[in-house]
Design a protein that fits this description.
The longest helix is centred in the C-terminal third of the chain and has 21 residues, at 257-277. It is globular, with a radius of gyration of 21 Å. The termini are far apart. It has 2 domains: 17-255, Type I PLP-dependent aspartate aminotransferase-like (Major domain) (Aspartate Aminotransferase, domain 2, 3-Layer(aba) Sandwich), CATH 3.40.640; 257-376, Alpha-Beta Complex (Aspartate Aminotransferase, domain 1), CATH 3.90.1150. The protein is built from 13 helices and 14 strands. The chain has helices at 17-23, 33-50, 63-74, 88-99, 117-126, 147-156, 205-209, 221-229, 239-255, 257-277, 304-315, 341-357, 366-376, and strands at 6-7, 56-60, 80-85, 103-108, 131-135, 137-138, 143-144, 160-164, 183-187, 198-203, 293-297, 317-318, 320-321, 330-334. It is an alpha/beta fold. Helix 9 (239-255) crosses helix 10 (257-277) and helix 11 packs across helix 12. The structure holds 4'-deoxy-4'-aminopyridoxal-5'-phosphate. 4'-deoxy-4'-aminopyridoxal-5'-phosphate binds at residues 11, 62-64, 89, 135, 137, 139, 164, 166-167, 187. 4'-deoxy-4'-aminopyridoxal-5'-phosphate (PMP) is lined by residues 11, 62-64, 89, 135, 137, 139, 164, 166-167, 187.
Length: 382
């Protein structure tokens, strides 16, 4: 029998069979009526998931594509941007802004810390910025930032707020309009339960008015917005991926976003409780905000690379390593999107087996039991 594979990384994430089936449907012409039906429905569903009345623009790109799009559309050469960074993806904002010739003012925290809106407000009072770039779920550490207060601080400081919601959209609450977030960028391959390859960005009127002069073509928001307005596409869309995303968004919205948020809280809780029951130490916060990724400190004397290889080769389980300065120090379990508690218990059971084999002092059998108990508790305890 072919070995069964389990994908527990924070992206790409598992894709439901009906979404995969939709991506395998025969090709449609992107300017024909059949595609338009799918396109219109998908764009409408995206607005619901982003919780915005503004347009959500769709690009064939990975999430980083729409991060870059935010900078090339909002900034002019030399503009100062404030980057709130506490991990690999905050650093990515800084790298893109630097590459494009912006002046980068980093509001930097240790990896794993939670950024504070008060710090942002003080920084902007000290030094104005055109744009504030932030990350809702810092996938490299498991921290979910308080975007609501950070965006409010950015707005009060006179800056356009831009939120990377690549790993958080559809997993934790994000009220784009309700919290006056100007720009939200995301990707298809995480909580939206779709294959990688589609990048999404919502753009407020304020962000449209803030147009800068950096050069752009494919990622020019206005070109794509005008095309989408008449259900046309500026360029050939990734037709099959859009068909898949349409089905995935339908699944998400039919069950309800609130149900998805609640499930992610309980999955995070199950994962953390299981990890602790095994005797391991968490790196990500031990509270219900950490609903996207659980980051775990490597037990003393166990090699992180070897652990992940064993998990994959022996048990078909893929987890994610630490990134940047956390490489070798932590491993990460994603519980985003098409996930249930048995995915969590499978991950925990495999970790337990491999660690016991590596001679680590782990409590056998406790993790799954505790995870199931924690999952059963209603998320309202939050
Ligand atoms: N931001 C965050 C928070 C992410 O988790 C990721 C992907 N891991 C990205 C940005 C980059 O997305 P992509 O790899 O799709 O370019």
């Amino acid at each position: 029998m072919t070995e069964k594979r389990y994908l527990f990384t924070p992206g790409p994430t598992p894709v439901p069979p009906e979404v995969l089936a939709a991506t395998a449907e025969p090709m449609l012409h992107h300017r024909g009526p059949d595609f338009r039906i799918v396109y219109e429905r998908t764009l409408g569903r995206l607005k619901e998931v982003f919780r915005t009345e503004n347009d959500v623009l769709l690009f064939a790109a990975s999430g980083t594509g729409t991060m870059e799009s935010a900078l090339v559309n909002l900034c002019s050469p030399g503009d100062r941007v404030c980057v709130v960074t506490a991990g690999a993806f905050g650093e990515r904002w800084a790298a893109i802004a630097g590459a494009l010739g912006c002046e980068v003012d980093r509001l930097a925290y240790d990896w794993g810390d939670s950024p504070s809106a008060d710090d942002l407000a003080s920084r902007l009072a000290e030094r104005e910025a055109r744009v504030v770039l932030m990350t809702q779920s810092e996938t490299s550490t498991g921290v979910v930032a308080d975007v609501r207060s950070l965006a409010a601080a950015a707005g009060q400081g006179g800056a356009v707020s831009v939120v990377d919601a690549v790993s958080s959209l559809g997993a934790v609450p994000l009220e784009t309009d309700g919290w006056s977030v100007d720009v939200v960028v995301s990707g298809s391959q995480k909580a939206l339960m779709s294959p990688p390859g589609l990048a999404l960005v919502s753009v407020s009127q304020r962000a449209r008015d803030a147009r800068g002069t950096l050069p752009r073509f494919y990622f020019d928001w206005e070109r794509t917005r005008k095309a989408q307005e008449i259900l046309d596409a500026a360029f050939t869309p990734a037709v099959s991926l859009v068909r898949g995303l349409d089905v995935a968004l339908g699944l998400l919205l039919d069950a309800g976003l609130e149900a998805a948020f609640e499930r992610h809280v309980r999955l995070g809780r199950a994962c953390r409780e299981g990890i602790k029951a095994m005797g391991l130490e968490l790196f990500s916060p031990d509270d219900d905000s950490a609903a996207v990724v659980t980051a775990v400190r490597m037990p003393e004397g166990v090699d992180a690379g070897a652990l992940l290889l064993l998990l994959r080769d022996r048990h078909g389980v893929t987890l994610a390593p630490g990134q940047g300065p956390l490489k070798g120090k932590i491993f990460r379990i994603g519980h985003i999107g098409y996930f249930d508690v048995f995915d969590v218990t499978t991950a925990l059971a495999a970790i337990e087996l491999v660690l016991a084999e590596a001679g680590a002092d782990v409590e056998r059998g406790a993790a799954s039991t505790r995870a199931l108990e924690a999952y059963a508790e209603p998320a309202a305890r939050v």
